[in-house]
Every structure is written in C-alpha cells, then in structure tokens.
Design a protein that fits this description.
This protein is an alpha/beta fold. The chain has three domains: 9-64, OB fold (Dihydrolipoamide Acetyltransferase, E2P) (Beta Barrel); 94-124 and 288-454, Rossmann fold; 131-272, OB fold (Dihydrolipoamide Acetyltransferase, E2P), CATH 2.40.50. It has nine helices and 22 strands. Strands 6-21-22-20-19-16-17-18 form an eight-stranded mixed β-sheet, with helices on both faces. A seven-stranded mixed β-sheet has the order 9-8-7-10-11-12-13. Strands 1-2-3-5-4 form a five-stranded mixed β-barrel. α8 (393-402) links the parallel β19 and β20. α1 runs parallel beside α9 (414-426), α2 packs antiparallel against α3 and α7 (364-373) runs parallel beside α8 (393-402). The protein starts with 8 loop residues before the first strand and ends with a strand. The mean pLDDT is 94. Bound molecules: S-adenosylmethionine (SAM).
Length: 458
C-alpha cells in the first residue's frame, strides 16, 4: 500500500463521492478523502491528515475536470461554505446521494435485503430554501451580511445574494444590511469575542408570501428599530414580524436562544399538503417546502394506513407529519421535546379542524412508558423523524417496547439511520424499503424514508 506523507502533494483521480461531499481517491489500498474534488476529476491534492488506512486532504489544482463537472451558477461558489456540490451536474449529485444511503445501510447497518427506490430528485435546484441563516461581517463598507467562508468558523464572506432563496428574502436582507450600516453598531468579532451584530435568520414562504426575521446579537437593545420597522413595512410588506434573539456565548449556535418581539408577530404561515401551518421562529420545518410535501407523501404511503390505526408520530415538531397523515388514521399522537413546538402543533390542529390528533411534550427516550401507563393506546404504526443524531439506543429500546407492527423512519442522516436500523432488525424488525429524497440540491444532505415491519416479537 502506498501511503503518502503528511504535507505532501499527490496526483490522484477521484473515483466516488463520500458522504459529506468530499471526493474519494484510492492509492492502492489507501483511501484519500479530497476536499474540493468531484468524481472523475484528476487533481493534485495536498495531504493534511493521515490515519493508518486513510487520509484527508484538499485539491490544490484541478488537472483534468471529471465528465460531470459543470459551471457553478453562484458567483460565491468556492469561497462561501454552502453548496459544495454546485459544480457537479445535478443528476449526478442525486445519484451519489442515493448511493450514500445504500452504502451507509450496508456498511454501517449491515443491511442487505431491503428494496431501495430511485431517489426522488428535487423539483427545483435553486430558490428552494424557506430558511437561511446569514452572519454579519465587518467590511470597509460597514456591516455586511454573508455566510461563513468555506472551512472557516471565524470568517464571514459577504454575499450579494443567495441563489437558494427567493427575491423577497433577499430584499429583506438588503434592508437589514442598510439598517446595520446606519446604526454604526459593531459586528461580532468571532476571534476577539467582542461586538454586537451576529446573525440574521430569514424564514419565508413562497406560498403565503410571508417572511419572519430574527436578528441575533450580543446582549443590549436593538438601535433604530423605528427605522427598521418603517423600511421593512414599506419595502418588504411580506415581513410579518421581526424577533430579537440574544446570545453572549462564544459559539455560533442560534437555536433555543431567548428572544423578544421587535414588531409584528412571532410566527409566519406556510402551506403544506393543503394544511395551514403556523411556524414559530425557532421551530423546525423542513427547509424545502415542495420536497417536504414529497417526503411526507412518501412517509404516508409507507405507513400503509387503512383509516383505523393508532399512529404515534415521534419527534413531531409543530405537528406537520401528524396532521398530514391524520385523515388516513384513526388517532394520531405526537411526541415532541419542545413545549413551544407542541403548543404550535395544537394550534395547527385547531386551525385545520383536525380532531383526531393530540400532542404531548416529552423526551422520546423517557416519555413513552409513562404515556402507555397513563392509558394512551399502543401504536399500530410509529413514525419517527429524529434530528441528525438519530435515535439514542434508549429511545430505540422504548420504541421497540411499543411493539408497533410498522415503523416509518424519516431520516436526515443515513449514517445514524443505519445504526438504528441494525438495532431494530436485531429486535425482530425487517427493513423492507428505503426511499431517498433529495431536499437539498448542491449540498451533501440527503433525506430518506425507511419502512420496518415487525416479523417477530423480541
Ligand atoms: C427533524 S425534526 C422533525 C420535526 C417534524 N417531524 C417535522 O417534520 O417538521 C426533529 C424534532 O425532534 C425534536 N426533538 C429533538 N430531540 C427530541 C427528543 N429527545 N424527544 C422528542 N423530541 C425531540 C426537535 O425539537 C424537532 O422538533
């Protein structure tokens, strides 16, 4: 095996795309993960990390472009940390993502007997996002709104606009940037830990035309809010509310911060599969609305409901999956950790006149046993839609105890789905079918729906 030296440069041909978006090259048995390289490329790569059987590096020069390379549509491609796959033909992106789902289930989950569908490719490859999280950068022109520079936690690259989101979001971004420059307040300096302006979160619905903005700052009152409100109302009439969230921490996290309303209201409305959904600023909602509909349609198909079943929707967020499948089920019970999301879910049920759903606040790993002891009916079907980390082993055990005859697993991370799949199969479930969905063109993220059937009780 030819193992290159750390710090050396090697010439390699990329033969595949790893989960995470890096190119994979092989030097005999040695595997090199190469940043900024795509399948079919011949590149010169600098080796930055070495382990016994694999290494990591990045392409310093593209010697010959692979057959699926295209011109990235965004002028910020390469410097901006988002959209790493923009220079790969979209059909290829989708094919590699499906392959990564299969590989994860086979290599990590040791599953080989499942049926797998072709990936449901995204209907739109640009302008598909309903949420973007920008960061403030300090430039000679004053505060500027941008994204993290590729590979850097401490540098923000200013952008003139993001092709992943619509024009309304972009005008709101421009007004906020103008406001920031008027106020003269300092931008948060990530290295020094000083300054005030940190992030702008824009959530928007193309379907209702509504936008909700959240400004994240260091502590202290927002200056010139009168100007901001007047300009947004005048130039961005779709903005239904602005929130101010505060963090004095050194990290970049924006979730779960204390926030107050600057003006308007703290939710916007989205439409999904005929449902009206009120979405609060901090609540989870899939960020590609059109493909979220496809994902839920697939989840509902895989639930194979006849109309009488009790369905438990675990990790239910603001209730979107539970509400979308309520018409096909007898009774639906949603379990969600965040109280605020559960309140929104209940409100959404009322708003849509759906009476056979109920939502409970609780941690899936702790709440399921007490719910059964309290007399809630055991589920025929369980839908799980956990965060990226998947189900903890304890949560898997609690789901298995419920003994549903079918589990529909909506996953945003095939590697954690794979680990959970192995545990479910060991407990008597069979992985029947996996259906990948591409919600996030140009990024490495891939979603999928996996159906497990109970073949024997543990
Ligand atoms: C991927 S989101 C899915 C939300 C919803 N199913 C949807 O489609 O919009 C995951 C949700 O799980 C919730 N969550 C995270 N950890 C949890 C836990 N231990 N127990 C219950 N819910 C949890 C999060 O607050 C979030 O709303």
């Amino acid at each position: 095996m030819s193992r290159p030296e750390k710090g050396s440069e090697v010439e390699v041909v990329i033969d595949s795309l790893a989960f995470g978006g890096r190119g994979v090259a092989r030097i005999d048995d040695f595997v090199l993960f190469v940043d900024r390289a795509l399948p079919g490329d011949r590149v010169r790569a600098r080796v930055t990390k070495l382990k016994r059987r694999f290494g990591e590096g990045y392409a310093t020069e593209l010697l010959e472009a692979g057959p699926s390379r295209v011109t990235a549509p965004c002028p910020h491609f390469g410097t901006c940390g988002g959209c790493r796959l923009q220079a790969l033909d979209y059909a290829e992106q989708a094919t590699w993502k499906a392959q990564q789902v299969r590989d994860s289930l086979e290599r990590i989950g040791h599953q080989h007997a499942f049926a797998m569908d072709e990936i449901a490719a995204a209907t739109e490859t640009l302008g598909y996002r309903n949420k973007l999280e920008f960061s403030f950068a300090s430039t000679p022109d004053g505060p500027t709104i941008g994204f993290h520079r590729a590979g850097r936690w401490d540098e923000i690259t200013p952008i003139g606009g993001c092709l992943l989101m619509g024009a309304a979001a972009d005008s709101a971004r421009a007004v906020v940037q103008e406001w920031a420059r008027r106020t003269g307040v300092a931008v948060w300096d990530r290295r020094a830990g000083t300054g005030y302006l940190r992030h702008l979160i824009v959530r928007a619905s193309d379907r209702t035309g509504q936008l909700l903005l959240t400004l994240v700052t260091f502590s202290g009152a927002l200056p010139e809010v009168g100007w901001l409100e007047a300009e947004l109302r005048e130039r961005c009439p779709g903005v239904v509310g602005v929130l101010h969230a505060v963090t004095d921490g050194s990290g970049e996290a924006t979730a779960g911060l204390p926030s107050s309303l600057v003006f308007g209201r703290d939710w916007y409305e989205e439409r999904l599969l005929g449902l009206k959904l009120r979405v609060s600023s901090g609540a989870f909602l899939q960020t590609n609305t059109a493909m979220c509909e496809r994902l839920y349609e697939i989840a509902i198909e895989e639930a194979h409901l006849s109309g009488d079943e009790v369905v438990w929707d675990l990790y239910s967020g603001i209730g979107s999956i539970a509400l979308a499948l309520a018409a096909a089920a007898g009774r639906v019970i949603g379990v969600e950790l965040l109280e605020e999301a559960v309140e929104r879910a209940r409100e959404n049920a009322d708003l849509n006149g759906i009476g056979n759903v109920e939502f409970v606040v609780g941690d899936v790993a702790k709440a399921l046993r007490p719910l059964i002891e309290d007399g809630l009916p055991s589920p025929d079907v369980v839908v799980v839609d956990p965060p990226r980390a998947g189900l903890t082993p304890k949560a898997v055990r609690r789901v298995i105890e419920l003994a549903p005859s079918r589990i529909v697993y909506v996953s945003c991370n095939p590697t954690t789905l794979a680990g959970n799949a192995e545990l479910l199969v060991e407990a008597g479930y069979r992985l029947e079918r996996v259906r990948p969905v591409d919600m996030f063109p140009h990024t490495h993220h891939v979603e999928c729906v996996a159906r497990f059937e109970l073949v024997e009780s543990a």
